[in-house]
Amino acid sequence: SDLGTVAAAVDDLELAAELFAESARRFRELDEPSRLAIVLANVGHISHQQGDYAHSIEVTEEAVAIQQRLGHKHSEAISLYNLGSSYLSAGELDRARRRLVVSASP
């Protein structure tokens, strides 16, 4: 996961995506939902940057579901904002608005 962050920081998005995907696989195997949610949120962000909005939405929705289940409100708000941005980029304005409004709610 840290290597994925480094790869993303130097704009090697393909390598970052590969490293985050591997981290997600391992965190699933280890049953580490908190870490999995972080990695999925990172995968969603990278996918958005690559223009793959459908994948970004898919994995970020999963991250949000995990964050909600764990009660991680701050991370959930950030993921909902990112999710809204992906929906907006995908042209799904109603879904974007709903996610963005929820992300800003206390």
Give a quick precis of the structure:
Helices cover 84% and strands 0% of the residues.
Key phrases:
106 residues; mainly alpha; 6 helices
Structural class assignment: mainly alpha
- Helix content range of the residues, please? over 70%
Mean pLDDT across all amino acids: 92
For the record, give the distance between the C-alpha atoms at the N and C termini, rounded to a whole number.
Answer: 29 Å
- Return residue spans where pLDDT drops below 50 for at least 5 consecutive residues: none
Give the count of helical stretches: 6
The percent range for strand residues is: under 5%
| Order of SSEs | HHHHHH
Number of strands: 0
For the biggest sheet, the summary is: none
Verbal overview:
84% of the residues lie in helices and 0% in strands. The chain has helices at residues 2-9, 13-29, 33-49, 53-70, 73-89, 93-104. The relative contact order is 0.12. It is built from six helices and no strands. The longest helix has 18 residues, at 53-70. It starts with a helix and ends with a helix. The radius of gyration is 13 Å and the shape is globular. With 106 residues, it is an all-alpha fold.
